[in-house]
C-alpha cells in the first residue's frame, strides 16, 4: 500500500510553477488557471496526471470519479493511465436520466449553490472508486462525491488532487471519511502576493 508521505510528496515541477506564476489575491485566492483549468497545457496536465495515477495505482480502482468541469482534464489523464473509465458528476446540465444520485453543495468559487448529479448506471455497487479533482479547498465537492459513490454501493479507496489549500479544511474532511488523500502541491498559505508551498525533499 502506498504510504501517506508518498501520497502527498510535493511534485517539484508543479511547486515551482505555482511559486513563479500564480496570481495570488489576498490570503484566499490562488489563480493558476493559465495551465490548469481554463487554459490547459496538454504536456503538463499529462505529466501531473501520470504522477497522480502512479500514486493511485496501488488502490486498483475500477473507475475514476470527478466533478464537472475542472476535474475532467486531470481525471481523464489518471483514467487513461490506469485504463479505467472516468465518470463525472454533472453540474451545468444536471438533467440526468433516473436512477441518479445528487447533492447540493455551496458553490466553491461562484457563490450560491451547485447541484452535483451522477447517474447510477455508471457507478455500480461494488465499483472501486478513486476520486480525482484539480483543487481541494473546503472539501465540500470531494465529500459530496464520496457520499454519492457510497450511496451507489461503491467503495471509495482514495482521493487525488493536483493542488490542495492546506489552510482550508478539505484534507481533514476527506480523511475523516476514511479516504486517504493524495496531492501534488500543498499550499500552506497565501501572503504578500505569493503562494507559500511545502517544499520537495532535496
Ligand atoms: O474543496 P472545495 O471547497 O469543494 O473546492 C474545490 C472545488 O472547487 C472547484 O470547482 P468549481 O465548482 O469552483 O469550478 P468548476 O466548475 O470549474 O469545476 C474545483 O474544481 C473543485 O471541484
TrEMBL record:
Swiss-Prot/TrEMBL keywords: Cytoplasm, Glycosyltransferase, Purine salvage, Transferase
Domain Phosphoribosyltransferase: 58-170
InterPro entries reported in the protein's UniProt record: PRTase-like, PRTase_dom, Pur/Pyrimidine_PRTase, Xanthine_PRibTrfase
Gene3D superfamilies: 3.40.50.2020
Bilayer-crossing regions: none
A Pfam family this chain is assigned to: Pribosyltran
SUPFAM superfamilies: PRTase-like (SSF53271)
Molecular-function GO terms, alphabetical: xanthine phosphoribosyltransferase activity
EC number: 2.4.2.22
NCBIfam families: XPRTase
Protein name: Xanthine phosphoribosyltransferase
Organism (species): Thauera sedimentorum
Taxonomic lineage of the native organism: Bacteria, Pseudomonadati, Pseudomonadota, Betaproteobacteria, Rhodocyclales
